[in-house]
Amino acid sequence: MSIQSEFLNFYERIKLDYEVNAELADKRDILLGILRNSDRLPGFDEYNQGSYSMHLGIEPTDGREYDIDVGLRFNADKDDYEPMEIKNIIANILDGHTDYGATIKKPCVTVTYKKDGEPTYHVDLVTYLYEDHTDKESQLYLARGKDSKPEEIKWEKSDPVGLVDYINHKIDKGDERDQFRRVIRYIKRWKNRRFNSQGHAEPASIGITLIVVDNFVACLDDDLGALLAAVKSIQGLFKIEKFEDDRWLYRLKCPMPSILKFENNTDAFEKMTDIQMTDFKEKLEKLIRDLEAVQGEADEIEQCKKLQRIFGEDFHVPEAKNISKIQHDYIPPISASGVMN
To answer: To bridge 260 with a disulfide, which of 87, 94, 97, 159 should be the other Cys (CB 3.0-4.6 Å)?
Structure first.
C-alpha cells in the first residue's frame, strides 16, 4: 500500500460514522420536540451548525464527548427579551431530562447523555433572536453569557447560517473539497492529542477551519502534501505580540469573513492568552518538522511509524511482509527506448 492509502484508511477510522451521527440526530430531535411542546417559548426554527453541519466531525479521544450544535432561531425580536431570559427557560424545561440536567454555558445550553455509565454525548442548544422577526433576512443575535458573570451577558451579532454556507461552499464540490475535509480532520485529531480540552488552551476548530479553507492548496492523491501546506498556512499568520519574561510572545488572529454579519473585530482565537497562542505556534512548528521528516523518509513503514507518533494508534503501521509483497510484485515502467525508468 502507498502512504496515501494509509492516510485514507486513517481517515475512515477517525471520521464520525453514520451511526453516531444518527444517534446524535435522534437526541437532538427529542430535545427539540420537548421545547416545541412547551408553551413557555416562542416558536423557532432549528439549524445544525458546527462540525456536524460542515461534515468535519471526528471520533473523540482522551475523554472528549460526541457533540452536535443546534442553532435555535426564535420567532422573536431581541429587544423584547433579555439575553438570559430564553436560555434560562430552555434550561428549566430540560432540567431532569438526563442525569446531568441542562447546563447554561456562555454561548449555549448543554444537555449531556451518558452511555455505559459515562458522559458520552452532548447537545449544545444555541439561542438566537432576530432584530426583526417578521423579516427572516434581518440580523440574528446570539444570546451570550451566563448568570454567574453578569458583566459578560449581551446580545451579539451573529451569522451562523452564513458561516456554515461559507465553509461548505468555499471550495467547489469534488476531489478538492473532499481532500480539504480530510485535512481538517487530520489537524483536528492532532490538535485533540496535543491540547487540553479544558479552559481555552486548545485552539478553536472554527478558526483553524477558516484559515485552511481560505488558503487551501489541493495536492490530489497526496494528503501528506496538502496537510503540510495547510499547517504552514496557519503557522505563517502568527505575528509578534510582545516580549515578556525573556521570551517573544506571538498571536494569531482569525476574524470572521467580512461578507458575513458578525460583530466587527470578532476573532475566533480571542479567548486564548498570548502564552497559549505561543504554545500553539511552537506545536505547529514541530508538526511541520515532523511532517517534513515523513516526506523525507524513503521507507514506507518508517513513514507510517512517524505518522503514528503524530496521530496516535489509529494511524496503522503496515506489516513488513505486506509492503515487501507489493514491492516484489511491482514492475518498473519501461521507457520507449526499452530501458527501465
So the answer is: 159
Look up the pTM and report it: 0.90
Determine the residue type at 108: C
**Can you say how many angstroms the Cα of residue 132 is from the centroid of all Cα atoms in its chain?**
31
Taking residue 7's Cβ as centre, other Cβ atoms within 10 Å add up to 21
In the CATH scheme, what architecture does the domain 16-158 have? 2-Layer Sandwich (3.30)
Instruction: Express each pLDDT in 225-269 by its tens digit.
Output: 999 999 999 999 999 999 999 999 999 999 999 999 999 989 999
- Give the residue from 177, 185, 143 showing the smallest Cα distance to 160: 143
pLDDT digits (tens, 9 = 90+) for 128-173: 999 999 999 999 999 999 998 999 999 999 999 999 999 999 999 9
Whole-angstrom CA distances from 30 to 18, 23, 95, 100, 168 are: 18, 11, 14, 16, 27
Q: How far is Cα 146 from Cα 41, in angstroms, rounded to an integer? A: 19
